[in-house]
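FAQ: What does a multi-protein file look like?

Like this. Sequence, then tokens, then the next protein.
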Amino acid sequence: MSARNANPLKVSLLKHIHKLIDCLVNIRDESGEFLMTLEDGRVIDTKGWNDWEWTHGIGLYGLLKYHEITGDKDALEISLAWFKERFEIGTTKNVNTMSPLLTAAYLHEAKNADFLVHMDSWAEWVMYDMPRTEEGGLQHITYLVVNHQQLWDDTLMMTVLPLAKIGLVLDRPRYVEEAKRQFLLHIKYLQDIQTGLWFHGWTFDGRHHFGKARWGRGNCWITVAIPDFIEMLKLSETDGIRQYLVTSLVAQIDALVKLQNQATGLWHTILDDETSYLESSCTAGFAYGILKALRLRLLPKEERYMDSAKKAIQGVLANITPEGELKLVSFGTPVFDDIEEYKKIPLTSMPYGQSLALLALTEYLRTFV
């Protein structure tokens, strides 16, 4: 088939994706505003590409998914180069720095690299040395804060998915079973039974949800993680864990569809607070999760779900600059006691914004084109 007969929507999406990738690896923190200084003097660049934090882990995952679907060699080479440089330097183990190990496990499985030693070291740390909350939850320990007795919704994406994948690749069922348990435990304490949405955080120290924020990006990690987890483990339709996860996911998505801004296709950073700003990275995550849930038949192919996903895709596309930068992306956000604090988080281009857009457009390419 000649190039002139190519599907114009596919051609347009591929152009957007290539620009997103270019911007992903060339983002710079020119002002130094988004640098993280540690007690030992290290400075972590959470915005630029050449460092090690959850922001980079999500970026790598987007590159992986794009490579899996299209065979794009540049996406693979960028990822392999990142791991080569970072593994030579090393970093502190925490809930967020675990996130790149998800992509590492996939690359190792595909025999693109040998990451056996690294996978073993990191997964063993999660299983036996990572701080725990009551009931054995994975405590959301970061570079700067131990977050004593706290569960955050981000943890399932950043640590639990990597643990499960490493368990499959290394044939260590105990990792997989622990990952299942963490999903159930996080649902137990973080999903709001009244709305179906997820609270950002829970603490056993006082037993409360802080400011009870139903925060956009925190929720999108769930919309992404549950379909990916079910697919990763190849859970059958009769599997009890799968059925439980699906009911959780559907409850969340049903709530999301009702809260989507119809004019833009975006969601607010506080999902049920229209006075909070519209945010594009969570929108991209929701688009990916809903599209994938439809493809995996975790959701029925009802018009309300399909329309919501398409509106979200259009909202994401409308916020990609000609240079490939996804706009309206909120910076990294801790759990706050006051919802008003979420509204003060600055908007800036970030690797995870680029990658969530990459995930959404790649899934859209696969599902509807």
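And here is the next protein:
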Amino acid sequence: MSSHTGEVEPMPGYLDLITRASTVMLGAWRDCSTCGLELSKRTLLDNAYITLTEIALFFFCAFLWTQIRRGLTESLFKPLAQRWRLLPKDAAKMPESAWKLVFYTMSWSYSTYLLFFTSYSFFHDPPSVFYNWKSGMSVPTDIAIAYLIQGSFYGHSIYATVYMDAWRKDSAVMVVHHIITLALISFSYAFRYHNVGILVLFLHDINDIQLEFTKLNVYLKSRGGGYYLLNDVLSNMGSVSFSITWFWFRLYWFPLKVLYATCVSSLQLVPSIPFYFFFNALLLALLLMNIYWFLFIVVFVVKVLKLKEVNDVREYEDEDGSRAAADLLKNQEAENNDDGAGHHISAPGKHVQNGINKEKHL
């Protein structure tokens, strides 16, 4: 069982993280003379605690998320897309964004509640995730609920990315991300690293809220052949806040709070902690994917600054969708001309033309 002094350790810098984590990990690797498949198998059997009921609940909830998404898409999101007269390309992708916005807002709000409005001190004192840790300890009900919600959602998301979502340049990486995330959620629950898991989920979900909010406003700014300034401003504000918080949460707080705790503090507090290398390898893989996506974000921000147009650089070219959008705009413009002054605010000609010719809308 681990112990602690009660003093909150100050958050390290990047250099401190790299030097101390590499020193501790190399030392642990050298000291682990019995490391191998046999020890891993024995450790797995001795420390993994998960019941058949929990596994059944996971599959049931994953199926439930899929059905809830289908139901909301048919009864709410698609009718809204038709009512708002979204461009065909945007109408096809709007339900995916609306669904993700609903889910991530709910899940991140719950993680925020756990970290800031209860007695858990994991955010302000990350090493505390390992205080009093012991194999097979009971998982508090409020954290177990968060794990069931998140784990089943990522189980659903693996299926959804392949069969329900629009396929993008990074969709294959997205599937790998979902598998790694599900592995982290499942194993961290089974090995009772649930405290770390809540912190990881909190630091990652906020970006998904901003991403889907931005995408929805991109779809809405050109609805019905008009131009809506409010949605344009909101999409630009969303893209800026998304870029800032991606770096702040995933590339600053995540490595300096979570990775430092799992690489350094964990061995100090629990010297014989099981699957130390396995969990840290998965968390490092998650960090590398965050860096990979940050490169997309940098390209995205440069394009916004140069073109004053929010685009998703992950999208494939879609000539048919673009042509359909152009035709729809032409038809609606002709109708507006016949009917006289329309109720929409007209976009400057150059801006509308850019909107028609862009084949990479979010």
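Q: Is there any per-entry metadata?
A: Some entries carry free-text notes. For the entry above: The chain is about 75% helix and 0% strand.
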